[in-house]
Protein 1
Amino acid sequence: MSRVALSVAGLRYTYPDGREALRGIDLEVGVGQKVAILGPNGAGKTTLALHLNGIHEALAGTVTVGSLELRPESVGEIRRRVGLVFQDPDDQLFMPTVAADVAFGPANLGLVGEELEARVAEALAAVEALSLADRAPHHLSGGERRRVAIATVLAMRPDLLVLDEPTSGLDPAGRRELIATLQSLEMTQLVVTHDLPFALELCDRALILDGGVVVANGQTQKLLSNPDLLAAHRLEMPFGFVGFG
Amino acid sequence: MGAGHAHALYVHEHSAIHNMAPEVKLVATFLFVIAVAVTPRQAIWAFAVYASLLALITLVSRVKPGFLVVRLAAVVPFVLFALLIPFVAGGETVEVLGLTVSREGLWGAWNVLAKATLGAGASILLAATTEISEMLRGMSILKVPPALTAIAMFMVRYLVLVSGELARMRTAMTARGYDPRWLWQAKPLAASAGALFIRSYERGERVHAAMVARGFTGEMPDLGGRRGSRSDWIRAAGLVAVAVTVASFALVFS
């Protein structure tokens, strides 16, 4: 593998109610790779995503982004490097207008004035949403909301994009536009999803997470053509995918 | 009204009033309302001047007078109350349209009616020409505590979502045969209010996580935007000066 964008070693996490969510996660993602994280409900996928940005504090293990290890003193820089896109865009878009929301991250990094405006325009252009700048988030369609939510983290110029269930609730056209947007972005991407055809189309590599551990790791196409493996982890390809799961 | 604008009170236009910086408009509206409030009720001419000022601003802002009148319906409850005063107040009486009413009460009614209408008119014009996001920005420029502006901002943003959630819960209840008519049937409604609170609280946690993920450290960042220019302040000061002069004259000569 070439340079490493993200490496996670021995990551463990237990929820305050005693439920073990992550039981020793090890994974490595190379720079520029697009990796899908698959797995049934409750496998710990979202919990893992929240660790990559330091939202949850690990019980044990390490998260390293580039060459920087996640520690209390490095969490600010880690949050700039790792752009986390939440499952529900309504959680992500909290400012009165799209432009203000996209500006929120870079403004926290200390950008002001023209530099800030340029950063906002750049991020909105990357998801083809420049025309939405002055709209209120609740007036956007599901697909527009999702693209704008991605722009809010692109504005921080992250090295690694982590998306949690990005296709949930999108109509087919919105899903198609999202795939095109993500394919056009060259940065490293980690995509948590239940949408197996989406994973197949976007990501060369995939991991299957179940019971808080990585149970499979390899080429997406190979994993998805193994029906026994998929069935063992409550996954299956949709009807009509000949030659797959 | 433009599809992208958040609130029903806003009128999408491009006028000198719309383009004025929000903090200038907030200050001007506040001072105008104070001037109206301190004007003695006998100075009817002063209220006429205030009304013409509002009419002038309405004209310049291209807000339709009809819009203003319809929104002014909000003061109707106060007007109804004001109309009662002449009949219940004591003191010297006069005959109006064959009815015996209190002179003091008539003045009281006029006082409430004129001041409520002018104050509401000024606020409606402010809301019609200033988007909520701009209003919040104006408030923070005027050094309103950031916690307050942030609370107002989140309320504006999430009110639509929370009320949508409530509507869906009601639909779900109706779909399963719940059609409350009497007080003792209210229990499911109370329970749904509790559920809504929990859901909103959890959303709050998720929104906070999303803010922290983008580098939020407890203080809302300054997102820039246009500050009030000299000419904004001068024009606003002109309008306010008229109102203040009128109020002073009314106070001195009544």
Protein 2
Amino acid sequence: MDLGPFLFLATLEGLVTASVLALTALGLSLVFGVMRVVNVAHGEFYMLGAVIAWFTAATVPGPAAVSFLAAIIVAPIAVGALAAATDWLILKRINYNPEATIVATIGLLYMIQQATLTFYGPDARPVEAPIVFRIQFPWFGYSGYKIVVIGFAILVLALTWAVLTRSKLGLLMRATQYDRETAQAFGIPVDIVYAGVFAAGAMLAAIGAVLIVPIRQAHYLMGGEALLLSFIVVIIGGLGSLRGTIVAALFIGLSDGIISVFFTPILAKILATLLVACVLILRPQGLFGRAPG
Amino acid sequence: MKIQKPSRLAVNSVTRRSALKGLGAAAGASAVLSAAPGFVRYSQAQSSEPIKIGFQVHRTGIGASYGRWYERVTNAAAKLINDEGGINGRMVEIVPEDDGTDPKRGAEVVEKFATRHNCDVAFGTLFSHVVIGSAPAAGEQKLPYFVVSEGYHVASGGLNRYVFQPGITDVRQQISSMAPWVSQNLGKKVTMVYPDFAFGHDHRDFFSKAIAAQGGEVLELIPIPPTESSFTRYFPRIPSATEVLYHVMVGPGVLTFVKEMGEHFGSNRPEIFGFIDSLEAVDINSPGLEFLEGSHFWEAYPRYKQANSSAHDALYRKAVGIDDSGASTADPKDVSTASHMFGCWETLFTIKDAMEASGYQSTADRGKLIEAMEAITTIAESREHPQGEKLFNGKIHQSFGKQHISKVAGGRLDVVHTTSLEDGFYEPEADYTTQAL
Amino acid sequence: MSNSVSPRALVLHLGVLVILFALQFVLPPYHNGIAARIMVLAIYAIGYNIAFGYTGLLSLGHAMFFSAGMYGAGMSARLLEFAAPSAFFVGVICAILASCLFGLLALRTAGVAFMIVTLMFSQAAYLVILYFNNVTRGDEGFVIERTLRQIGGLDLADPVVRYNAAFVLLAVCLIGSLYLVSSSTGRVMIAIRENEERTRMLGNNIFAYKLLALTASGTVAGIGGAAYALLFGYTGAAFAEIQYSILPLLWTLVGGAGTTLGPILGTAAMFYLVDIASEFTSAYLFFVGLALVLMILLLPKGVLGTVREKFVRWLP
């Protein structure tokens, strides 16, 4: 294939990765930004979203579009409820201590992974896409559903953005983020905000997973990569910067794909990885973070 | 199975038992096997403790899809052995330990078999890095270690005298025996897509060599990084002059890989030849795989029951609980890893034969067991070896067997070609028998 | 460098070492072999603790230092047929170089950015091992010839030799880390962990201290890696994966970050937690996870961290 079409394809692929990554990373960014804790189990919430989507799609009868629609409603709600319970049962009790949270969420990661392995099994299982069509470009064919994913992700992102910046809910969250004690003093129910933020973060990951599952299947180990990439995106974007998270998701998604056009695959991975490291070495506060001091 | 007594053993310790065994062995291959229960009567004054077989199983980690089926097949074979009187009159006890598909835990588990469970032998590993990581522990503990891995690691001579692979062929012979058929029937200009780790490199190296010997050539090598979960962007690297696309992938991403390959090509595709590893434990009728119709796969063991399948195949399928389509009889959506898991069945029966031939009584007889294993030459197709006849090379601890090429047609896989044993032969590069026990 | 290891701290550590040494005479073979493995892995955790527990450098990339030691030793044995002592030496040198060079780059960042930079470099190191698979044998790894695993005529694969080799290395690393954290350098490290800005204003060269801590930490981790390769005879890319960067973090946190003995306790606890749970159920990871959650609810600073906070204030 010529360079032009090849680049075009890599860009399309990068956009698909970036759009789902933006959702997942935005979830982590909320938790990280507001609560100041690293949720190691974030990737497992993503995985659970995919697995619950599979169960829902397998249970709900009717055409693929209907069962998929059910999945994209059921999965985030179920995952969000689990996350809220986690916050209330565990994180609140260790007072959101950053180090204790790492251990607790690693423990949670083990529990979720093993439970999924036991009840869902080790196989990667497909969910049928709600819409199946193939776009035939002059040089290659492309899955139409992937384009749909990009569109839907943008929709969810816009919605989240609106909630965070325009609603009272977003105001409460931002207030809590800036100063927990003061927020409490002003009568903001910090406990509820935290549980809500933790649940919302997990729900965003779950939505991303439901979107990706018709492309990449549900598998009990899929959370690891999602966690790593989201984590990278959040830091590259700059902590607490919504815009940064989205730009960084684009940067990570596209750079990985486009570099792979010019180098052998594994060399491309090495270069993409080092590129991320270099960005942070040159700009430790992230692309849109404020420099300290 | 024909067993030649190692001469040293024969001179030093011709017991009544081993003499009888020798006679039995001379009487012919499957006769010994079917007579096995009868031999139990000769086993007097011995331990009634079970023979413990440590089972290193991938219950968690990326090997879990395979591990689950390895466990089912192993339990089925052990049950059959026990129903028919066990080994040397002793029951077989399978002692499973999860290795997490991790070489560190693998080595720990092998030590645990030897020093905690006091197992007689260890068995059952699939993933190569776990095999290689565990092999030193097996050698140090002097624990016979039977792997079901396909890797070329055993035959290469890189491990040690305690490691055997009698129940499954290695990738080198699998790949080499495919090249003639591929070049004669599908095309000579090949592009290879394979995982960028050792298993894939074996494919890269051995197939490139084998296809060149057939007058063909590899146009492009496309190694996929093991951390990858989407593949579309690699397909444009496939040159348009490609006549045959050769693919082999493993791990959780396989279905995505095959689906994206379909999206890329649409109806306009080259010939496709794949190793079934790309679709083990995956239903070939999954949505998105329609484009595979008419493509070919290597299979070690036909997933779908064939018209000319033997009675052994029927018994094996029933015992391990898979139907004629190679899926679980309990859940038709649960597809087996047919081309790998049969190795567990065959290996257990080979361990049984070698234990009986060597008059194995206790862990003190492990040396005799090793020598009896190395003395094996031929393994006949039988109930115990439903995949087919094999030659066992005692010097490199590896068996050689037939391979199948199957075509996807009408939503199932049917065998169109079966190789001969000779197609996979190569010059042995090692001799484990020179190592001290 | 004034050192101020308190006598009772020294007695405690020597006592722990005496017990570890004596254990080999009473442990049954299985636990004997496991103890050797735990001691080698605990070296890795001790190294990690120097950077994370004492200096506050949360690294997600220590697997690259562990594998620098492992591959330095393993590759020199495989390709150059170096015997154990020289291979070990090469491994340690590799770890020193890797951690020092890496520190020069990565310590320009701090906090979460440091976490990601360590993660990225470590991932790149893993991929480099795969990329040069023709010499490294990639993910599959390789076995180190038993004939090379000898030291002064002693076979490192022999259980008694192996136990004592692991013990000696652990003892050196433990006492070394005790002296380091009790020294004036160690006090600056701890001050950086507690309040970097104030420590800087007191006139300390933060970068130099961090680099020293990271190099010491990476070197000890590399000692663990080189020892693992030579004592257990295997080198493979699995040890360079992200998971092996998370493990020492977990071990350290469980035992108590910023306590010298915590990493040993944490490594042993996690090992036995997995080993024992897996004997009762095939779903053992669930119970391991549950145990971690319960532990952190009861002992939020890890076992020894909480013990120090509540009972034994002088614990180093």
